Amino acid sequence: MNHHQSILVTGGAGFIGANFVQQRLASGKAGKIVVLDALTYAGNRANFDGVEGASDPARFEFVHGDIRDGALCERLLREHEIRTVLHFAAESHVDRSITGPDAFIDTNVVGTHALLKAARAVWLGGSGVDHRFHHVSTDEVYGSLGAHDAPFSESNQYQPNSPYSASKAASDHLVRAYHHTFHLNVTTTNCSNNYGPFQFPEKLIPLMLVNCLHGKALPIYGDGMNVRDWLHVDDHCRGIELTLQMGRVGEVYNIGGENERPNLEIVEHITAAVDAAFAADSSLRTRFPECPAAQSKPCWSLVTYVKDRPGHDRRYAIDPAKARAELGYRPHETFESGLAKTVAWYLANQPWWRAVMDGSYRQWMERNYAARS
Ligand code: NAD
Ligand code: TYD
Question: Helix 350-357 and helix 204-214: axis angle, to 10°?
Fold first, then answer.
């Protein structure tokens, strides 16, 4: 085995990280994948169960640990002769950053810095080795767009509005600074809203899906006209692979879906997809008796307007020109195809979402709803 192709994936047991690892293993690419994950409420060891290659210790290793543990990060980089770090680990949910910002500073800012320090010590400490630190970030660092503003380009000013986006912005700046000051070879991608399998049902799309199936209210914040640029997670992962292959060191690439839609339209698509699935497959009525579609009622009847999220950004949208020109990047999935696959995945994988929702999630959601109603 060529150790030099080993990669460290932080946060690999979360939504995007797990999809990335699964894609890599399926592609048969050479080199071992070492996942470092603290298994917070959002991380799930079971995301690798039954995944081809994940039971082969030459191809995959899971390490339960925290990116803030600098000694552990250094040890993993040395022991596995890691030359590529893919940094996904983060606290990622805006609503949680409003009710409890501290964890966001701890993991996203202090944690990213601990990882950067470890990379610097190991890679730049001696005579130096070829290496890459890829940082996975969000378009939310650019703030909120007005209805007629041009989409975010890489040169937009940083104007983060939530504790989440502020902590991601801080981590982006640290990554940039480690390149300029210490010559660490870094790349950063700032991506729009992802959806797809293995996403924790606190984010808009899986939350609405799961609530439909349970016959629970579909909480629309504010007027439901906030706009996001939705991207299927497979396309994000492909954009990251392209950045590793072709991205220029020190550069930032915005990855988007070319798919801006207001929240109400997203919820309309989800409710229509669930209605259609129940019409086509009568066994769903027995599996999910509380779903309105089980009584031939439209899921849209569950829509409920709730108090707006404080500081709620109005619109995010990505200008994809740079990634297209330099990386040849374009999303493959249309929203219709991506959403249909996602709905089918959640219908087929009830044990997964029930299990991840059984932890601290329920209590947190109850507090969150109580605050909004
Ligand atoms: P997620 O919340 O599903 O997963 C985060 C993972 O990080 C979990 O497995 C968790 O256990 C792990 N983790 C958290 N704190 C840790 C720590 N201190 N040490 C080690 N591991 C820790 O998040 P996601 O949606 O998969 O997002 C992954 C990355 O992509 C994040 O950096 C996020 O900011 C970024 N991003 C997400 C989206 C999106 O729409 N989800 C869009 C753009 C960018
Ligand atoms: P979310 O998935 O939390 O992603 P982000 O805030 O990082 O963009 O939310 C997407 C949009 O959906 C955002 O405008 C907030 C809105 N939203 C609701 O209206 N209701 C909900 O229950 C949730 C979770 C989100």
Answer: 100
The atom number, within ligand 2, closest to the CA of 140 reads 7
- Does residue 1 lie in a domain region? no
What CATH number should be reported for the domain holding residue 159? 3.40.50.720
Q: pLDDT tens for residues 90-102?
A: 999 999 999 999 9
The residues annotated with a catalytic role in the active site are 139-140, 164
Q: What phi-psi label fits residue 37: left (phi over 0), alpha (psi between -120 and 50 degrees) or beta? A: beta
Threshold 0.90, pTM exceeds: yes
Residue 2: per-residue pLDDT: 44
Q: In this structure, which ligand is nearest to the CA of 42? A: 1
CB atoms within 10 A of CB 49: 10
Predicted pLDDT of residue 1: 40
Instruction: Tell me which residue range forms the domain holding 98.
Output: 7-196+230-258+310-333
Atom of ligand 2 at shortest distance to CA of 205? 2
Count up the domains in the chain and report the number. 1
Protein residue with its CA nearest to atom 20 in ligand 2: 220
Using the predicted structure, report yes or no on whether residue 109 has a pLDDT greater than 80: yes
Q: Ligand 1 pocket, 107 CB below 6 A?
A: yes
